[in-house]
């Protein structure tokens, strides 16, 4: 006699996963606890409800935290230190201001979109936001639009493309930590993922940025932004040096990927090594110090500022993603990955759609795009192996799902609200809608790409 497609144990596992995630959300949103504590409690709740022994749950939690922090922690820390250098030296601001000066008012939204994609490549979303939005707001203020309502709409038509550019690279383009982690977990090819990610990211950013801004900005009123920009009082580095530092990690990784095609050539091993994100970011950090700060790089004030900004952000991010890794590992240990792989085979669910839906669910529940990515990729390897789908496209589908509908449990929601000056309702209308468009359009383009490549 055939066993039923979904057993009582399967239903118990799904209910356990949902209950654990709900507990984490309630502790974070209602209890005002840090995601680190909420996600750890959620991980233990999933394991206990699923019937795992407490000792096994503890081992899974330790493994999950260790895998994520050990595998991604260096990339996170090096990316944050590079972001701090670009921020505090004024290099990113100089690049953005130069580009905006070269464009007129009509081209300014497209300029901010391009700047955001460029600056956002090596940086966390929050870092890129802190770097870019004060510059964009200042540029919008200088446009001298006559009445206040039109002036607010004009500002948003500059700001939303910047947010779209930062959002798409955060979700879709390595060496951003989220997509990079997914590449490693699913065994995807880094070079192909970067190429496919750029092909999906550019049209997605255009739709979610300049196009969407024209639809949603009329009637939105802005208050003075709560937050401001702060950097060191030093000479701004040259634009060429700033551009070189922003692009260097991507160029090193891309060159390394090309080096794999020429393994017989002398010195090709060095090129291949350059594709390792830790090496690429470490080299960039070492070059950024003298290029961005010159002879002042040895001053205690400079060093203290850079590493204080880096470590303050790194602590919160590493704790959150580590706890997300713990939740992921408990879900895997409880058997959720195997269950999803079986359901995909049985019901012919598209692995791309499944990866997107899992990421969407975690994103809505936990608020963090990075945690959503970590959890989704942790339970998808069996699905990828069993279906034969391109792991690179699964990485992009999960990335698209991880940014779906930012709302009140996402720190980015409040950061955008503070920097842009929108009300809570208008933040939903602009920022939350923008993230949802990135997610849905990104998935649609990934599905189309799956029939081409």
From TrEMBL:
| Spans traversing the lipid bilayer | 12-29, 36-55, 75-96, 108-136, 194-216, 236-256, 268-293, 305-327, 339-358, 391-408, 428-449
Which InterPro entries does the protein's record reference? Glcn_transporter (IPR003474)
Q: Which membrane topology term applies here? A: Multi-pass membrane protein
| Taxonomic superkingdom | Bacteria
The answer to whether the entry has keyword Aminoacyl-tRNA synthetase is no
Q: Which UniProt keywords apply?
A: Cell membrane, Membrane, Transmembrane, Transmembrane helix, Transport
Q: Which residues form a coiled coil?
A: none
Q: Where in the cell is it found?
A: Cell membrane
Stored Pfam families? GntP_permease
Is NADP one of the keywords UniProt gives this record? no
Hey, which family's this protein in?
Belongs to the GntP permease family.
> What protein name is recorded for this chain?
GntP family gluconate:H+ symporter
């Amino acid at each position: 006699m055939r066993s039923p497609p979904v057993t009582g144990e399967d239903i118990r596992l799904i209910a356990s996963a949902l209950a654990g995630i709900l507990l984490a959300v309630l502790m974070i949103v209602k209890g005002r606890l840090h995601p680190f504590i909420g996600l750890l409690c959620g991980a233990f709740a999933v394991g206990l409800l699923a019937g795992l022994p407490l000792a096994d749950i503890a081992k899974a939690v330790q493994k999950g935290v260790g895998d994520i922090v050990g595998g991604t922690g260096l990339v996170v820390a090096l990316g944050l230190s590079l972001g701090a250098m670009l921020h505090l030296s004024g290099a990113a601001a100089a690049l953005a201001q130069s580009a905006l000066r070269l464009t007129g008012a009509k081209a300014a939204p497209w300029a901010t979109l391009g700047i955001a994609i460029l600056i956002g490549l090596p940086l966390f979303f929050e870092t890129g936001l802190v770097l870019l939005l004060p510059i964009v707001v200042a540029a919008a203020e200088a446009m001298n639009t006559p009445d206040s309502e039109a002036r607010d709409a004009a500002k948003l038509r500059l700001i939303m493309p910047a947010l779209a550019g930062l959002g798409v690279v955060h979700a879709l383009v390595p060496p951003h930590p989220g997509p990079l982690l997914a590449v490693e977990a699913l065994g995807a090819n880094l070079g192909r993922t970067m190429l496919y990610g750029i092909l999906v990211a550019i049209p997605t950013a255009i739709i979610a940025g300049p196009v969407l801004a024209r639809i949603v900005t009329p009637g939105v009123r802005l208050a003075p932004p709560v937050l401001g920009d702060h950097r060191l009082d030093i000479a701004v580095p040259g634009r060429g040096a700033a551009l070189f530092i922003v692009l260097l990690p991507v160029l090193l990784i891309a060159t390394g990927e090309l080096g794999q095609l020429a393994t017989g050539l002398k010195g090709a091993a060095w090129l291949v090594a350059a594709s390792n994100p830790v090496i690429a970011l470490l080299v960039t950090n070492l070059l950024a110090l003298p290029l961005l700060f010159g002879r002042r790089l040895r001053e205690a004030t400079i060093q203290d500022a850079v590493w204080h900004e880096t470590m303050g952000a790194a602590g919160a991010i590493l704790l959150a993603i580590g706890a997300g890794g713990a939740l992921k590992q408990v879900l895997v240990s409880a058997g959720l990955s195997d269950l999803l792989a079986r359901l995909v085979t049985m019901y012919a669910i598209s692995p791309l759609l499944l990866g997107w839906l899992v990421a969407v669910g975690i994103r809505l529940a936990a608020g963090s795009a990075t945690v959503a990515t970590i959890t989704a990729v942790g339970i998808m390897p069996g699905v990828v192996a069993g279906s034969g789908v391109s792991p690179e496209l699964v990485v992009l589908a999960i990335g698209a799902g991880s940014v779906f509908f930012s709302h009140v449990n996402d720190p980015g929601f409040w950061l955008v609200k503070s920097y842009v000056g929108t009300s809570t309702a208008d933040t939903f209308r602009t920022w939350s809608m923008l993230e949802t468009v990135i997610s849905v359009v990104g998935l649609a383009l990934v599905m189309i790409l799956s029939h081409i490549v």
